[in-house]
Amino acid sequence: MLVRAHDPGGCIRCDLDASSNDAVGKIKGSVGAGGANAPADVLTVQRLLNGVAPEDGGPVPLLAEDKLVGPLTTGAIKRFQTEQKLAVVDSRVDPNGPTIKRLNEVSAPGRRAIEMLRALLGGTVPKADNLGALPAAARQALRLQRVQLAIGPLVELARKAERAAEMAMDHLTQGARLGAGPAGAFRRADLHFALAGRPQARAIAALRFIRTTFSRARTVLANPRPSIFGGSPFGTAIFDIDPLGRPWHAYSPRQSADTGRADGVTSGRIYLCDRIDFNVQDLFVHILMHETIHFVDDETATREIDDARDGYREGAFRLTHEQRMHNADNYALFATHVGMGRARLVASQPSVAPHVPADLP
Length: 361
What we know:
Muramoyl-pentapeptide Carboxypeptidase, domain 1; about 5% strand; 2 domains; 7 strands
């Protein structure tokens, strides 16, 4: 079954049955200054570092888990080595070396995650000092509670994105005389979909497509009407727990690949995996919007909204106009920017900061 999967470091189309769980806490090559820096190994180290409490040498702020080695990641490795008083402080993590060994001993992403959940959900979170200490059923129940909290914001994000597309069209057809609102809406749409320089008719057609996509998303997320097949295919009911233990944040099966599986996985649901639990709520909402865009698209060559190669987070700003129109993260970034504002978008996804102008709040 083909699915669109939201991996911690990107988004991919892949075969659900060809996937398997990642090894946790292990690296095959060196990471950091002078290291091999294979993307999967970098992601492992970034996640381990983010699980270290600041008083133990963890990074402040948290690293972007982007599989890329830069000064923030090497600096975080050095800080950890220094705070832990390791014999070698070289800004590098080697397989089977003292730094990776100590990281696995000290890192507890679940500790930060359960503190976040307790702040978000209050007394419904069972007593534990680490998310990993909770039974799977308890974690899954908390995940669905977060979905309940997210539905209202998701509907509002879709509504605001839909309205922003309309205002951008007004700007194109009526110009600056409408004022700053429509002009700002067009700048945001242009930032995320590269509309400037397009013939007016093509730009308006693109904005209509964007508006329709968010209208579909809003309808699916907000409409609780029952299905003739039982239950509801709308609202919180489109989100379900991944039954297969896949190593992603979430995934959406393609409708054309739906063959009636014995395990019950169907294109009528978006599946949430264990890794999504570690994300702050704004990023959690962003991921749900990303997957909802997949859920409502038309799976045709001209209208499918898929995941472009290297089109995740900051990569979305480097795509061509045509690629952006068919890349789910451009829609999710646009909705998060319009609905939450620049400050919250950047706080939850620091790697996009250089691409979002400060004068587009």
